[in-house]
Amino acid sequence: MEFNDLKAFVADHDNFEIRVIGHAGSHCYQVELEDVEGQRHMLTRSGKPMLFRALDDVYLELKRAGIHRAYLVQQVPHDEMVGRETHYADPLASRMPLVF
Predict the structure, then answer these.
(1) Any alpha helices (H) in the chain, and if so which ranges?
(2) d(CA 96, CA 87)
(3) Whole-angstrom distance, CA of residue 29 vs CA of residue 43
(4) Could you tell me which of 89, 88, 95, 36 has the C-alpha nearest to residue 71?
(5) Measured on CA atoms in the order 73, 30, 67, 17, is the torsion positive or negative?
(6) Where are the domains of the chain?
(7) How far is it between the farthest Cα atoms of the chain?
(8) What InterPro entries would the database entry show (predicted)?
(9) Could you report the per-residue pLDDT of 29-39, keeping only the tens digit for each?
(10) Virtual torsion, Cα 13, 17, 23, 29, nearest 10 deg
(11) Is 42 helix (H, G, I), strand (E, B) or coil?
(12) Which SS3 state, helix, strand or coil, does residue 3 take?
């Protein structure tokens, strides 16, 4: 989802979840939107996934889109290596609420 599309989506909808995804061992973050139908949309620029080097950069970009809440999700390579499903819906295990 392009940034301009994100701004339009946020203006028209109120039932969605924003996830800031961090990967263990990496200092980069990606932003993902999950809509009410359960479809996931990665934030992109010119068709390429946007990468952020700091959470402050993520906050500024999301604020520009009119978003003030998100979840920080840390993906651990061990889960992916052993084929275990990541549990984004389990709030205590894999995500932390962010308010900015």
Answers:
(1) 3-12, 55-64, 77-81, 91-94
(2) 13
(3) 11
(4) 95
(5) negative
(6) 3-78+93-99
(7) 40
(8) DUF6482 (IPR045508)
(9) 999 999 999 89
(10) 40
(11) strand
(12) helix
Containing H/E element for 36? Answer: none
C-alpha span between 35 and 41 (Å, rounded): 8
Q: What is the DSSP string of 4-19?
A: HHHHHHHHH----EEE
Instruction: Give the pair of three-digit tokens for residue 46.
Output: 């010119």
User: Going by DSSP bridges, is the β-strand pair 40-42/29-34 parallel, antiparallel, or unpaired?
Assistant: antiparallel
The size of the chain, in residues, is 100
Cβ atoms of residues 27 and 44 within 8 Å: no
C-alpha span between 16 and 71 (Å, rounded)? 12
Report whether pLDDT(14) > 60: yes
